[in-house]
Amino acid sequence: MRYVSTRGQAPPLGFADTMLTGLARDGGLYVPETVPQMPKAEIAALAGLPYEEAALRVIRPFMGDAFAEDHLAELIARAYAGFGHPARAPLVQLGPNHFLLELFHGPTLAFKDFAMQLIGQLFQAELARRGTRATIVGATSGDTGSAAIEAFRGLDNVDVFILFPEGRVSEVQRRQMTTPDEANVHALAVEGTFDDCQALVKAMFADAAFRDRVSLAAVNSINWARVLAQVVYYFTAAASLGAPHRAVRFTVPTGNFGDIYAGHIARAMGLPVEQLVIATNRNDILHRCLTTDSYRMAGVAPTISPSMDIEISSNFERALFDVLDQDGRAVAQLMEALKREGGFTLSQGVADRLRDFYASGRTAEEETLATIARIARSTGEVLCPHSAVGVHVAEAHLAESAAPMITLATAHPAKFPDAVERATGHRPALPERMADLHNRAERVTRLTNSLTDVQSVIDGRISA
Ligand SMILES: *Cc1c(COP(=O)(O)O)cnc(C)c1O
Prior knowledge:
This protein is of the alpha/beta class and 464 residues long. It has 19 helices and 15 strands. The protein has a domain at 91-106 and 225-424: 3-Layer(aba) Sandwich (Rossmann fold).
């Protein structure tokens, strides 16, 4: 099993190196050279299995001989043991032919736990096998950092440092990062914005001496292992609604395109997915690209679904690689135009192929709030603002086919209590198992927006 870069200039790697490397050396993203096929009988056999067993069957073919089967089964079991629901990714019905896939029962209440919890176990196992350590450094506007800290806490071969903008993440998100008390996790509050944090992380990776000294690694959303972990719930949801004998559709609240791209991989493996719908909030660069053939930056406006407030949708590069017939040079040219000119225009043929693969829609802020209120009233299901963006877009596509529509619910409503309270008049409560979050002691290091300060903290903590 080999992985190639979307820009065609980096050496192909096996699974473990792809995971530990993250970004390819030519600036591209790793994708499987060929996607393993899952025969119909094997898809049918997933129905009714425990989530962990389905995960083993779906992801193993992508890993070559990186992990022995029983070892992988053990790592998967450990990854999902901390979830607050025995189904891990339960499916509930919202209305005729419309289903909601609840992906928020993980330890930090967002779908990112599915990938991060597994990647934590896989990193630890691979580093232990190699007899090395790694230092994970990441910047977060909230969800990714808490998921990373939760996934790597207490693991022997990894230190994790998460930079977040002081005062600019929600209280729940901050507490999820600052209350774990294991010595290998470090929450760093930076005096600055999310962009400042991201710039610091970039600068650390660009400092070759520092990078080598601390064995820097990244687990951001372009890491292939994260995409792979997310493929699983497309299979479990579809199989429980009758796949492969019945086709299904998915609508995915989308930002960096990692989650929906996992749906594309499920389809490429043979899962009958009739439609994959990209749902955006008012930051609708992907929806505009699908409707105007042109990907063009126009500035990001803050919304009540902040995890989708982006305009450089990093995993979209993988979709472009597919529709450009795996032409790395053509992808590199588009990415260069994006950097230099703030956008690019696709040829008619390429844009048509993209529309064969993905549909799209956008949801305005008032529609998001109205959807939360209406679904709570009509079904009792309380949606987070991201999931509400998805439900609104899904409803617009519902009548196009008789295949069931599955909308991905990406976060728990209690993670975004202000927006939910505005919509419904009720403040959603945290699940019982984390009800004491607001009473746990916090541990955080405050830093100015200075590369040398951040680096000396990391150097000091690692040698300690
Ligand atoms: C990260 C995130 C998204 C966007 O997912 P992508 O994989 O980046 O497209 C949507 N909703 C929530 C709650 C998230 O945390």
